[in-house]
Amino acid sequence: MHSVQALSVHRRWAVPGVSGLLILTSLVIDRLGGQPGWGDALMIAAAVVAGTPVVLSAVRALSARVVGIDLLVSVAAGGAVVIGEHWEAAAVTFLFAVGHALEAATLSRTRSALAELVAVAPAVAVVLRDGHQVEVPAATVLTGETVLVKSGAKVPVDGLVAGGSGALDEASITGESIPVEKTEGDRVYAGTVSTGGFLQVVATGVGADTTLARIIHRVEEAQDARARTQAFMDRFSAWYTPAIIGLAVVLGLLARDVVLALTLLVIACPGALVISIPVSVVAGIGRGAKDGILIKGGEFLETSARIDAVALDKTGTLTEGRPQVTDVVPLAPGMTHDDLLRLAARAEAGSEHPLARPLLRTAAAAGLAVPGLPEHTEPVPGKGVVATLDGQRVAVGSLALLAQERDRAGLVSGARDRSRAAEVVDRLAAAGRTPMVVARDGQVLGVVAVADRVRRDAAEMVRRLHAAGVRTVVMLTGDVEPVARAVAAQVGVDEVRAGLLPEDKLEAVADLQRRGHTVAMVGDGVNDAPALATADIGVAMGAAGTAVAVETADIALMTDDLLRLPEAVSLARRTVRTMRQNIVVALLTVGLLMVGVLLGGVTMAVGMLVHELSVLVVIVNAMRLLRRSAGGRVGHVDVDAEAGLLRPAERVDLQRPRA
């Protein structure tokens, strides 16, 4: 790998190196008063060496009906040789060759993220076959085989840990520099490095099906994708080059000065303008890839820089997506805490409702038996579930479901019980929990509540989004309004839209767009798919384990770290700001040089030297993107463990009845 890179570097600088040596030799001969004509011959030779690749490039472009800046330099250098300006011809072609070498070196440097990703791809794997450890090429490992990963070795496949424990450096995939502990059942990725321990991994993805391979493919495509501004510059150069040639001819004829016409051709070359955009885009995408932020291409980078509204799904994005039982409140005489929890868990045992799992998990942890399944389970969409237990109807759900069950049972009394249940439901919902009334044959037994822990860095993410220039952060959720408002108050979002179905989320995103916003939608890519597709930028989080997200999202954040989102927005803004700075430098250079030529005093060689200096300025400016920004990640926010659910002052003391 290193030998190939070294060969590439030598080839890149061979032409300007030989040309520069010939120019230096010519100047020395003239200085020492050598044989007449030798100095000019060496200058012509230098122009030929440096100019031949330029002429060939111009011919290839013309054959494709493209008139580019290579043609301007070719005509100017050829004309300079014809009229005897050998030094000018050599200097122009030499400086142009140096500029090309610098551009190639810079693009190679800005593609370093891709090169590093390719470098971490492991070549061999140790596989357990017939009870023996066999070393084989990583690409030949079969899905389902057991791969052994020892301390210091690279993981050669995607897979699940079947045995052992250890720590893996996942920086190549997620951008995280801190090793992650892995034990049985955990997912591992190809290209990560063991920093200690011993793992037995069952391969689930090999070769081109690994997460690393998909990332390499994605970054490769993204760095080659053209930004909208770059496409505009291509259209601009399509008429700019012929216009400059025409202007040079007209001025040359009017002034009867061939040198003026040729100098104008050289001066008007928009070299810095041509490289200003691609070098910025490649550097920005490369920086993102190093930090675990995959951006689909230049067009999406530019769009991301305009994001001023971010729509966030609540469950699994602002919250951890793992609801926990927080309250069990018996309300019926003789009903105990454990009785109510057991009954609610039994009713939910045959339900697919997402809140069934925390009830069953809590009951099991409390040692409460939940035997078998209900005799019958009837989901009530949007309200809860009704189960038949020992011949009785047990309902677990909203107040609306309670009213429906009471009507079914023909109950007309019990207003006080309903009022107490409603009071508890309102207080729990206002505290950010999802309350569920438990009723048997229409009679209120109590209320159980669950809450999804708010992510520790959710509030910091919203603050950083605002700091990055995002004016509106909107939470979209299918949860009820009071719960949504409680979560929103903790994280600091600007708008809340609750009780939404997937199609409602799509409409919410479309409404933001109609209000003039450029919208990024962050979601899980499943029930949020319509909204993600409608948004200007769809963002997938935790994409390391999701092949579809890596391939389809406009921006894929490889970890579940919320702080990567404002990082991505800030990176996009920095990249576009750099592109604009580079364009201004390039245009200003061309404008000032053309004025200098028309007023006199700027020669062909001086003009080309200034041009190459402007190219260098553009390159150095773009290279700054490869550094992590000063406002980069500083780690997770240190938040009190309880703050994830509720702040202490907001807690409601309803877990058990008072004595």
Please, could you describe this protein's structure?
The protein is an alpha+beta fold. It has a domain at 324-451: Calcium-transporting ATPase, cytoplasmic domain N. Helix content is 52%, strand content 17%. The chain has 23 helices and 20 strands. Strands 1, 2, 3, 4, 5, 6 and 7 form a seven-stranded antiparallel sheet that branches. Strands 8-20-19-18-9-16-17 form a seven-stranded mixed sheet, with helices on both faces. Strands 10-15-14-13-12-11 form a six-stranded antiparallel sheet, sandwiched between helices. A hairpin with a 3-residue loop joins strand 11 (376-380) and strand 12 (384-389). The longest helix is centred in the last third of the chain and has 36 residues, at 564-599. It is a multi-pass membrane protein. Keywords: ATP-binding, Cell membrane, Membrane, Metal-binding, Nucleotide-binding, Translocase, Transmembrane, Transmembrane helix. This is Haloacid dehalogenase. Residues 121-220 form the P-type ATPase A domain.
CATH superfamily of the domain at 324-451: Calcium-transporting ATPase, cytoplasmic domain N
Class from helix and strand fractions: alpha+beta
Tell me the CATH architecture of the domain at 324-451.
Answer: 3-Layer(aba) Sandwich
Low-confidence stretches: 1-8, 633-659
Summarize the amount of helix as a percent range. 40-55%
**N-end to C-end Cα span:** 74 Å
Number of strands: 20
Number of helices: 23
CATH topology of the domain at 324-451: Calcium-transporting ATPase, cytoplasmic domain N
Mean pLDDT: 79
Q: What characterizes the major β-sheet? A: 7 strands, antiparallel
| Global geometry | elongated
- Rg computed from alpha carbons, rounded to a whole number of angstroms: 34 Å
- CATH top level label of the domain at 324-451: Alpha Beta
Strand content: 15-25%
